[in-house]
User: What shape does this take?
Amino acid sequence: MASALLSVQSLSGWLWNGVALIEQPVKNVAHAVFLPEDKSLGKVQDCFKFVENSLAVRRCDKSSEMHQWRSPDSWRVQEVFYSDLNRDGTREFAILVWRSFQPWPIDKYLPLGGRINSHQDSHGMSCHLILIGWDGQEYRELWAGSALAAPLTEIQFGDVDGDQYMELLAIENEYDGLGSGNLVVWKWQGFGFTLLDRVEGKFRNYSINQTKNGLMIITN
Ligand SMILES: [Ca+2]
Ligand SMILES: [Ca+2]
Assistant: This one.
């Protein structure tokens, strides 16, 4: 995760003021330390494994096939975290996946199709955010976004606007130009994510710190 030792001289802090992320002076802020995600899924009998760009969920004691889910071989799972992004009171996996680009189905038939054709890299791979969770009977894809217009890296969760719900934080890169970009915060709005704010820049990573004024995002 993005917990590299940050150089204090190059840091900016960003706090939500009710309308936008506002830059703050960063002084004497303790470096954020990212703890490993809790690997129990609220029900201690379920475990997950994230290795070699593949995510697998199963009963820790392998007792139930119903409790198994595995990312398809055609997916390259890049990042994973476990939180309640879709605001239904239950945590799910948010995963960042690269897979072969697919146009919107309807665009195959429209004269002006191909509206998201730029949402892929030069190898025909596109970046997607997907939520995987327990629906009461099995683990499944709860929500899958179409190809992102700009691929994300460094995904994390945090309550940026202080409404007790978690937002998605990320660095927004360019296809074929991964490495730095804008800081973005997305929030769930019922059927998908909507942009809460974007701070334009060439940020490589960031950390999040709880302060008395709210969640401060520290970029470098
Ligand atoms: Ca949820
Ligand atoms: Ca929030």
About this structure: The radius of gyration is 18 Å. The chain has one domain: 8-219.
